[in-house]
Amino acid sequence: MNRILSAGLAALGLLCSIVSEAQVDERKQIAFDIIERNADQIATVGDVLYYHAELGMQELESTKFLQETLEAVGFKVEMGGAGFPTHLWAQWGSGKPLIVIVTEIDALPEGSQTPGSIERKPLVKGAPGHMEGHNTHGAVAVAAAYAVKRVMELYKLPGTVAISFGPAEEQLVSRPFLVRAGLFKDADAALIIHIGDNFSTGHGLQNYAAISAKFTFHGKTAHGAVNPWEGRDAVDAVELMDMGFDKLREHLRPSQRAHRTITIGGIQPNIIPDLGQIWWFVRDANAPWAKENFDKLVDIARGAALMTGTTMEMEVVASAWPQLGNRVLAEAIQKNIDLVGNPKWSAEEEKFAKDFQSALGLKAVGLNASPVKFGARPQAFASNDSGDVTWNLPTGNLNFPASVPGVNYHNWQAAVTPTSSIAHKGEVAGAKVLAASLLDLLTSPALVAKAKEQFREDTRDTPYFSFLPADAKPPLELNREMMERFRPEMRKHYLNRTPQFN
């Protein structure tokens, strides 16, 4: 009898599992239908953000537009988290689990470009532009969150979905501050999204840790010909610091990266400069190594000041831990990537992509037809500030296909396509995968628990610590002058459209 009862219970459990999976699939299909139905509205969100093209910390009109868009579909929006006027946190639902979409919408300096023009043709000469396609992030995040909200309402699902639009990702600024302020302390998991030329996810270390800091030297001015012995040359200190780190490179791990620009280098040759400044980025494959290299750089700066009789001030501008991909979440995301598949590109889109690639001297391979295979994503050398989030809660990452393969970001060429049909199709596909992954987390306590266990295992030997000094504050003036200079002309190109989601 007990065997019969056990067998019956097992069969019932299997039946419930099948019914549950079928129900989840049904929920995903409803989300996909909502996203498809709103394809034009999704494109509008991305396109409006493209023409705003605001630099980090100055995303004033972009976040105003997103706030109005999200409030119109029922989300509660809070601005100003962790002292960032342009940080936007949108939330809907109640209770657990709390799943956060983490992304950004900032542009880059001098990236202004007429969409669709393969030849260099700025909309506003010298102005910022979306030459990494962060405008598409806003479209994907809003679309997925809206679709999931509708499904949660229909099925009365418990839980909360949120979006965090972090300012100034291009300068690695906001997320360490947001983590320090506790914005993610109640979240159960996060999903990071980013534009790519294909669908992909990954686990383990995804990119590099980085610390960005400015070193300012103060000396004493004097006439270069009449009384140079009375001067204390601050630019000499900058040069000695630069040479000092070059001598150190031989004795650092091969994985290290360090690069700098001299931001204050004197006035004219016959004036001993009393002010000099050099801005460094120090990177390595993990956070402890990056911190170790940075501490050595600080010692070199102190030595340069000692050698020149100057004084030195150091300001940490930004920092980032390497992004840590959670394997459990990556596997769940990959299943949804395989479920959705790459967009079906038209003949015209393929021809444009190949013409674009040929114009850049690249092999004309066209657009990607199938996603990247799971696990085929090596650690990158670049950095982003989302890494700090990933060391504080389980986090999955999703790249969605919305750009042309071979066209590198941070170049004006990458600003050619972020409002094209290629980008629009990629936004729809990305929103579907993101929505499906959100639904997996909202409807499967076992998945959340397994992701948390994976997180504990991944971080056991490397506890998180903040790179930020205790007195560090958000750089509110960052990029202000540049945006104020160009925004009046840029406004002439605004779309002034309002998405109407249904």
Structure classification: alpha/beta
| Helicity range | 40-55%
Q: In the CATH scheme, what's the topology name of the largest domain?
A: Aminopeptidase
Tell me the domain tally.
Answer: 2
Proportion of beta-strand residues: 15-25%
Tell me about the biggest sheet? Answer: 6 strands, mixed
Mean residue pLDDT? 94
Q: Give the strand line-up of the largest sheet.
A: 1-2-4-3-5-12
- In the CATH scheme, the class of the largest domain would be Alpha Beta
Number of DSSP helical runs: 13
Q: Rg to the nearest angstrom?
A: 25 Å
Number of strands: 12
CATH superfamily of the largest domain: Zn peptidases
Uncertain parts:
4-20
Helix-strand sequence: HHHEEEHEHEEEHEEHEEHHHEHHH
Q: What is the CATH architecture term of the largest domain?
A: 3-Layer(aba) Sandwich
How far from one another are the termini? 54 Å
Overall outline: globular
Provide structural commentary.
It is a single chain. The protein has 502 residues and is an alpha/beta fold. It folds into two domains: 23-207 and 322-491, Aminopeptidase (3-Layer(aba) Sandwich); 210-319, Alpha-Beta Plaits, CATH 3.30.70.360. Helices cover 42% and strands 16% of the residues. It contains 13 helices and twelve strands. It has helices at residues 2-37, 39-52, 60-72, 135-155, 174-180, 234-249, 287-308, 327-340, 347-359, 387-390, 421-443, 445-459, 480-491; strands at residues 76-79, 88-94, 98-103, 159-165, 189-196, 204-205, 209-218, 257-264, 275-284, 311-320, 324-325, 395-401. The protein has a six-stranded mixed β-sheet with strand order 1-2-4-3-5-12. Strands 8-9-7-10 form a four-stranded antiparallel β-sheet, with helices on both faces. Strand 3 (98-103), helix 4 (135-155) and strand 4 (159-165) form a beta-alpha-beta unit. The radius of gyration is 25 Å and the shape is globular. It starts with a helix and ends in an 11-residue tail after the last helix. Residues 4-20 have low confidence and may be disordered.
